Amino acid sequence: MNPLTLTVVAMPSSPKSIAGSIAGKELAPLPTLLPHYLALSYAALIIYASLHPLTGWRDPGISPFYFLDAAWPRYWTGFDLAINALAYLPLGFLLALTLRRLPGRWIPAVAALMLGALLSFCVESLQTWLPTRVASNLDLACNTLGTGIGALLSIWHGRRFFIRIALLQRHLLTPFPHSDFGLVLIGLWLLTQLSPETILFGAGDMRHMLEITPAVPYAAHSFFALETGIIVCNTIAIGLTVRALLADQSSPYLAVAVFFVVALSIRTLAAAVLVNPLNAFAWLTPGATLGLSVGGVILSLIMLMPASIRIALAGLALMAGTVLVNVTPPNPYSAAALVTWRQGHFLNFNGLTRLTASFWPFLALPYLTLLGRRIESNQG
């Protein structure tokens, strides 16, 4: 896969000069794979969300394409139509940008439209075999419309948008290969914070997928200790991962602090919107308070160490946090939150965030290993 070549300015010294450089059009080529990574990740998320819960497959005895000439659905709302269109809008935007190397101005948009429509057609056809899903030609039309709108926006504004992103990358991030993938990992981790049922920062829980019963029965004191340990380990792991992506000339402590403020804000907003405004700060348990405090102090000290040691400790903390989250008994609050959540329109979104949270450590650990080897080779 060839990297997308965006035309950007020579490296400015500050974000303010970035905007000025773009306005002045001091342009130089810069390759980036970020649109490719984002497009693939977003397509995978759409597939999972569309086919969740991926159980109960059966043959209904009808063609999987019956929905194409079916009558107008009896039950539909404007909200559902808007969600189906908006869900595919980012996909169209990213696909058109990824395919920008195709000749002509409009061919990338047309190709993106066709790919988005094909993806929607495939998942709608597969929904025929899922008892909890209903294939719909109206959904297909809305998905295609959203893809088309996104593709048009990409043709008009996508290049300039990613020029700005690429310049910020060069200003804020360490210039090493695969930093684009690191940004995608960080974005996926932030996505997991939209799930109010999981322990704060908890990731890697595979028990619901493997149908494994909790190893430790619930007790207040043991849950407090395990919750604290999970938050400490993951605060260290994600904080060091963010630090590894930051350029040395940036302000790493400020950037990491801002990152955690954003993550906690997402968590709070998700609980307020998806569950109940009264539960907005339900994540702020005694274990979370202690875990954030202890984890923050340890993280601050580790950030003073050499890069190779930071990466190694990030991997160890990530593995420790994953082990702890898999032996922790269910959180009573999470069970209540899930009941409330499943009563709304967000059942598929719940499955999406849980899947992302389950697999995130297993994606991040190989990346940290690759990053550590890169640092060692540079030092050698």
Automatic annotation (TrEMBL):
Stretches that traverse the bilayer: 37-55, 75-99, 106-126, 138-158, 179-203, 223-246, 253-275, 281-304, 311-329, 349-370
Cited Pfam families: VanZ
The keyword Ribosomal protein belongs to this UniProt entry's keyword annotation: no
This protein's record includes keyword Transmembrane: yes
Span of domain VanZ-like: 60-155
Keywords: Membrane, Transmembrane, Transmembrane helix
Name of the protein: VanZ family protein
Naturally occurring in which organism (per UniProt): Candidatus Propionivibrio aalborgensis
